[in-house]
Design a protein that fits this description.
With 241 residues, the chain is an all-alpha fold. The protein has a domain at 3-162. The chain contains 15 helices and no strands. It has helices at 3-11, 13-32, 37-46, 50-61, 66-76, 79-88, 96-104, 108-116, 122-145, 152-157, 161-174, 178-194, 200-218, 221-224, 229-234. Helix 5 (66-76) packs parallel to helix 13. The radius of gyration is 19 Å and the shape is globular.
């Protein structure tokens, strides 16, 4: 088997543990929301975006309209356009088919692993994507099987997985930037304020849009990463995610 592919899979093992927790949460909560096992598995296999899936499941539970669910997941997944564009710039020698396959399972974790690695080959990305994709889909299936085995209070507690995932991605940058902290607080306050006037599902969507708009003017690119270049290079590739 290609050594770059195996290297990508190996580099993704720590991230697979975190992805598995989110996958189990999706399996549990989707079944509780009334989705069938097939629908839940199909969602994870085709979408593979834990944050938007958990948000969509929450909206389904609240009886939100289909249009709001589609719009909400669209905006929360817009970051994939940026991530895919960045990765594709490094895969100039890859064929169109390879790029499409590489973009399909690209997620926050595989993007971070690939970006921080010194190996920018297509097969490294494919190995990382494969490990994370299989872990996510398999853990979703495990979650659907656990529905009748755990007390409801335990199942409900899995809903915090999405917040833990967001914090894990957000804190490394936020702790180094007052501007990012300010943006997070402003977005949260906007969401809280809007909930008094519009449904919660729409307040989340509008708060995301307004928060992103404010961030364009509030946050500079330099504030997102303040570590010296030497420290990043000396970490040997993949750091904490």
């Amino acid at each position: 088997m290609n050594k770059h592919f195996l290297s990508g899979m190996k580099a993704s093992i720590p991230a697979c543990l975190g992805v598995s927790v989110v996958g189990i949460s999706i399996g549990l909560l989707a079944m509780q929301a009334g989705l069938s096992r097939f629908e839940t598995m199909l969602m994870s296999a085709m979408v593979m975006a834990g944050s938007s899936q958990l948000m969509a499941i929450g909206m389904i539970t609240q009886g939100t309209s289909l249009y709001a669910i589609i719009l909400g997941t669209f905006f929360i997944n817009l970051r994939h356009v940026v991530m895919s564009s960045s990765v594709m710039q490094r895969l100039k020698e890859a064929t169109l088919l390879q790029r499409l396959v590489g973009a399909f399972a690209l997620c926050d974790e595989s993007f971070a692993i690939y970006s921080l690695s010194n190996d920018h080959s297509y097969y490294f990305l494919l190995g990382s994507n494969t490990a994370l994709y299989v872990s996510f889909v398999l853990s979703t299936f495990i979650g659907t099987l656990m529905t009748n085995l755990l007390p409801k209070i335990v199942i409900d507690s899995f809903g915090i997985a999405i917040y833990a995932a967001f914090l894990g991605l957000l804190l490394p940058s936020v702790r180094k930037s007052v501007q990012l902290i300010t943006l997070v607080v402003i977005t949260a306050l906007i969401n809280w304020f809007l909930q008094y006037f519009i449904p919660k599902s729409w307040s989340v969507i509008l708060a995301m849009i307004l928060g992103a708009f404010i961030g364009v003017f509030l946050v500079d690119d330099e504030t997102i990463s303040t570590e010296p270049k030497e420290e990043t290079e000396s970490s040997g590739g993949v750091g904490s995610i």
